[in-house]
Amino acid sequence: MYRAVLFDLDGTLCDVEAARRLAEAEESTAGVRRSEHIAQHVVPNPDAIAVLSALQRSVPVGVVSNGAARAQRMKLRRCLPGLTLDGVFISGVLGCRKPDPDIFLQALCHFGQAAESVLFVGDDPVTDIAGAAGVGMATAWMAHGRPTDSLPHPADYVIESLHDVLEIVCP
Question: Can you give the pTM of this predicted structure?
Answer without folding.
Answer: 0.93
